[in-house]
Amino acid sequence: MAMITNHEDLYKRGGAGDISSIKASSKITQKSAQSKLREKIITNKRFKVESLELAEVVLSEVEEKEKVENSIKKLKHGRNVEALTTLYRSFARDWAHAETFIKCEGLPLLQGCFLSTDAELLHAAAWCAVNLSAGQSKVVKKVMCLSPTLIQFLSGSDRVMQELCAWALANLAGDSQRNKQILLEQGCVTSMVTLVATKYYMDFEDLLKSVLFALVNLAKDETYACVRCMQESSIYSHIVTLLTDISANCDLCYEIGWLLNCLYSRQETLSEYYNQLSPVLHLIVNKLSQFMQIENKSQREKVLLPYVHCVGNIIGQKLDLAVVLCQEVQFYTWILTCLQCSDLYIQSEVLWLVNNFMVEPSCRVLIIIQANILSAIFNLCHSSDVDIALQSLHLVQMMTKMSTFILTYLVHQGLVGLLILLVTHHDHRILQTTLDLLVHLVSVIPQVNGDVQLLSFVLCCCT
């Protein structure tokens, strides 16, 4: 699933004055790195396989082609579950088999299978649609002819069929902006929101997972039309219900997090649905506190990512929202936890979140006076990941620009020792930023417990 590709998701507040100049030199590089990292985690399309063993079966190109062609021949002689099973397995193993299927006129045969009343055959046909739609764009363009049929099955009573059709539609939506627009016009968005509104999803987790996946891809619509349709279909009330009812240990929380991000990181949402943002922030903070209780470290860090990302985007849109967030007592606890976690993606996201939070003047001191948070940021300046270290150092630089009093406080908290260790750093960006900070310290603080003499010595050594 994905983080935003067609509609770039932006940290919208750049700050003012010195803060802007501090961020300008590294913002483009940092955002590019973040985007690449997120793309490694989330994709716009997903194959469906029965097991990793079946997915990893390796056959020769000739054998695979023969399997596909033989399956098509079987379909020509009648609707055949075995043939469809062979096909969806082949599609999952290699995109090229989907192209072979299209070239051999297999798509009309697959379309005919959806007219069957046999549940097993319908499920196999829908599974084929899932894996075909997860392929290359030139194949997906052909598969779009199935979208009206797939949407029709969303309103049926077969939960497995609904899940598979929602999954296929999610893949179609994830392929292009054009597909999103077509699906919107065909009523796909409204049908998906209707499925979220039903309570039986509590017993059919896989169904809701596919529906949320589809909504995320649809919400990446560049024109905002899909998101507006979701809002008009009362997606907000359903989001509130999901965040309230679903356990923090449930896998669905991950999908909900990305949907929240797609819905509330848009400038249009700020102008049209601003009244939703404060309640959503409150719900997210409560959910994040629940995630902190998850014992499994990998599960905890996975589910944290979209929510931290979402909060960073929300408060980056309007300074008032940062003020709302600072009133949440639990906010500082999970900020510290995220800074101390081992996941680089989360560290990067939470550093951006703190950056956005500190753009609001009344919020800056609230971060600095949290001794544990300040210590964690200092520690990340030594991170083996250069981008994380640079982000952290830029936060420190932002802090030193606030006032002489704050600068003196930072010196007493160990700023000088931190900078001395960084003057030998191998990365020229970190070294340059460190030297800039040292020069600033020497010029601003005439005397802090003899530290000026030490700083002067360091500067002489560096030159």
Automatic annotation (TrEMBL):
SUPFAM superfamilies hit by this protein: ARM repeat
Transmembrane intervals: 402-423
Gene3D superfamilies: Leucine-rich Repeat Variant
Keywords: Membrane, Transmembrane, Transmembrane helix
PANTHER family xrefs: TRANSMEMBRANE AND COILED-COIL DOMAIN-CONTAINING PROTEIN 6, TRANSMEMBRANE AND COILED-COIL DOMAIN-CONTAINING PROTEIN 6 TMCO6
Protein name (database record): IBB domain-containing protein
Originating organism: Biomphalaria glabrata (Bloodfluke planorb)
